[in-house]
Amino acid sequence: MSQENVELTHRIMDAFHSGPDQFVALMDEDVEASPRIVGGLGSTVCGHGGIRRWWKDLFDFMPDLAIEILEVRDLGDVTLSHTRYRGHGAASGTPFDERNWVAWRWRNGKCVRWSSKATEVEALEAVGLSE
């Protein structure tokens, strides 16, 4: 099951670039997310509708956003990905280039919780794990 979750991590990141429908298709209906870049939605985004709104706001802010997976670790029902976010602000054209850690909790082939943080330790703690 763990290798399947590693593969799901790669699939969900590929889906992220394909659009919100493809992205949420790999998530549980009651998914809870704590994205690092949240805009006006607060610090937690819930459900498919919340994820779609967050995705739209994010791409309105940074239309050329691309996320690259640098590494994925198998932690059982959790995967930890080290990622690189790159893009430009829509209004300013200011370049954005940041590394990030995302912890994904999986159940029955769907993501039930994910949290994006600046550090590995923060990401693990956000899903109830420690390094």
Number of strands: 6
Quick one: CATH class?
Answer: Alpha Beta
Mean pLDDT: 91
For the terminal residues, how far apart are their CA atoms? Answer: 21 Å
Specify the structural class: alpha+beta
CATH topology, by name, is Nuclear Transport Factor 2, Chain: A
General shape: globular
| Whole-number tally of structural domains | 1
The fraction of residues in strands falls at 35-45%
Which sheet architecture does the biggest sheet show? 6 strands, mixed
CATH architecture: Roll
Order of helices and strands: HHEEHEEEEH
Radius of gyration: 14 Å
Weakly predicted, low-confidence segments: none
Helix segment tally:
4
Strand order of the largest sheet: 2-1-6-5-4-3
Please bin the fraction of helical residues.
25-40%
Descriptive report:
This protein is an alpha+beta fold. It has one domain: Nuclear Transport Factor 2, Chain: A (Roll). Helices cover 34% and strands 39% of the residues. It is built from 4 helices and 6 strands. It has helices spanning 2-18, 20-24, 47-61, 120-126; strands at residues 27-34, 45-46, 66-74, 78-88, 95-107, 110-117. Strands 2-1-6-5-4-3 form a 6-stranded mixed sheet, with helices on both faces. A hairpin with a 6-residue loop joins strand 4 and strand 5 (95-107). The longest helix is centred in the N-terminal third of the chain and has 17 residues, at 2-18. The mean pLDDT is 91.
